[in-house]
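Quick start: what a row looks like.
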Amino acid sequence: MDGDSDILEVSPTGDIILVVGPPEEKQLRLRVSSTILRSASKVFDAMFSPPWIESSCTLSLEAPKDIDLPDDDPEAMKAICYAIHHRPDMIPFAEMDGKHILQAVRTIDKYDLFTTMQMVTDRWFRQVTPYRSSTDLMYLVAAAEMLKKFDIFPKLTWLVMIIHVGSYLSFHEDKLLMDTLPPKLLSTYSSPSPPHISRGKSWYASPN
């Protein structure tokens, strides 16, 4: 294990260290509690049980075990771990732009943390203002779609429409958006006419 000075102590009594990010880039080492993660997510529960964790392996705070998460975004996982460990004061709400929020939401989706993270995600969307760029708002559109936030989705798409200058095809050059947004929504924004949301009829029907 690398020097303890490189470890971010999300939980000082944690028994695992999440090594987040690809090895070729700067990774983030988060000391967390496996018990808290397992109670928050069925995915984490499976990860910290046999055969993922050997039955002979005993997790302990004296010798935390490294768990490699090379495919996850370090900053997104950091915010999620702080939230799960009941440390919302450590989440940089005001500093999180649309891209960081979308990356966090993708991680929430991957680990099935929708219920656990609901209060945090609600707060992210309460900070939406028309002073964001259209690209930043589009990241939030994608995040709202993943979270099925029917209340905020029409507002976000409307803001993109009135703020964006130029062709909507520019959004197709953004890999994060392309990997997240449904093709139906992307094709709507790429059509010659404005999206139906401009006439008060979002393609994404509200359940109410």
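That is the whole record. Strands lie at 7-9, 16-20, 28-32, 65-69. Confidence is low (pLDDT under 50) at residues 1-5, 194-208.
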